Amino acid sequence: MRASTHGKMAAAVLGAALLAGQPALAWDAATTHAGITERALAAAHLHSVLAHQLGRALGAFEPLRLVPSAVDHDTLWALEHRLADLDAAGGYRPGADGTLTAAGWIKAGAVLAKTPPELGRNHYLEPATRTGLDDGPSLSGAWHAARLTVGSGATVRDAATGLAFDLEGMPATQWIESPHNDLGVPSFWDNWQSAIRAPLPSERETALVRSLLALGGILSVLEDMGQPAFVRNDFRGEFPEWGSRFEEFVADRFGAVALPPSLPMVSRPDLASFFVAADGKGLAQATQARFFSAGTLPPDLVCSGGDGPEEAAKLVNQSLKFPEPKFDAIDLSPSTTHYLVQSGIKVAAYRRVGDTIHFFLDQDVYAAVADAWLPMITAYAAGLIDHMLRGKLEVELANGQATVTLSGINGSPGKETALHLLTEDAGVRRELAVAYLDGRSSLTLSLPTGTHKVAAFASGVDASGRFVATGEATAP
């Protein structure tokens, strides 16, 4: 039994086809990402956090406005234009007055993270090496970017800034932490804090909008860890000119509203471990070990007369790019489609025609993988939401004092955990005091006479990473 040259020839043709047009990347943003994110929000506790920790009475359904005067001109211009490209029918494009529900802003962030789709270049992660999308020995990324510039209308500036796709990208775990990512972790924390701290109501509202957009962007990257091509460095095999057949199948079958419900929420010890971790339970690791992508299937094999099912499986496994999933035996009976089934899930199809065994993914595989894995992706996304929002402050006002109690974090607050207390008068907030918790979970601070409303936030690092806890209270 030997590898056929057919696979190599197909790869060369595929590469040529890829360079003929602009790529489509990752789960369909307008349907699958929006749907997974919405399911995750329903499973997580965002609604309660917004209602009880940020004083937004309607929680996830609270209308929030992106206020022009609260954002610098260049940032506003870019954000408005990106939002204007979103589909109004999807429920995640703001109205003409810049208003959308809190949940809608998170979905908008998940969609914006892939609009234009070339932004998905930074959503790849090969868990063993912790590397991102890398075209390696294949066609030069720089050459591809130049070809894309000429062939599909992208500008030289697009190629220089990464809006023209060059087949390389930052690892997903680095991208969510990058200061250059306006929909990443730094933007989330900075704006979540400002949603309490900013002096004017319009500034606080806009900061909350931008924090929710960033949360959606982080979720979008995590959700792509459930797409096998993104954890197997498989752009070329998965995304020919016409896009991914698997993703097209998922978008057509489920749309944005008919995805299966989430499995029980996944809890992880820190943010990075939702993606990849030493215990092997990151979503990228779980996906890579269970499923093939189009370009990481075994190549065609030519049978010889003495090969049996186990010998055939051994040769197939030797040809795999990754150690899992693997075959225990190959059914050599001809002219019938057979399936590799693991944990009750069809993960690959193969058929013998003449002396050649051809491996492929068909709609039965797509359906089995989607039915089994979309609920798991949603469970990870819901867990990430609650992880980011784990810190909570309870504020009690009595006898001219405010007692602030921190809960929800992993361990005791460190000596660098700063508690900020703010008073509010006619909607305008001013910082009253800053104190350090230093191992304490509660502090009591005196208030000026006549104080009717107090807000607080605590910022620090616990055993699970950074947190910002918030709370508000109004005197009876």
Order of helices and strands: EHHHEHEHHHHHHHHHEHEEEHEEEEEEE
Q: What structural category arises from helix and sheet content? A: alpha+beta
The gross shape turns out to be: elongated
The DSSP helix count reads 15
* Low-pLDDT ranges: 1-25, 139-163
Radius of gyration: 25 Å
Q: First CA to last CA: what distance?
A: 81 Å
Strand order of the largest sheet: 1-4-7-6-5
Q: Could you tell me the strand content as a percent range?
A: 15-25%
Strand tally: 14
Oligomeric status: single chain
**DSSP helix fraction:** 25-40%
Average predicted local confidence, pLDDT: 87
How many separate domains make up the residues? 3
Largest sheet properties = 5 strands, antiparallel
Q: Can you walk me through this structure?
A:
The structure is a single chain. Helix content is 37%, strand content 18%. The strands form four sheets. It has a five-stranded antiparallel sheet. A four-stranded antiparallel sheet has the order 11-10-13-14, covered by helices on one side. The protein is built from 15 helices and 14 strands. The chain folds into three domains: 6-134 and 169-254, no CATH class; 299-360, no CATH class; 392-474, SOR catalytic domain (Immunoglobulin-like), CATH 2.60.40. Residues 1-25 and 139-163 have low confidence and may be disordered. The chain is an alpha+beta fold. It is elongated, with a radius of gyration of 25 Å.
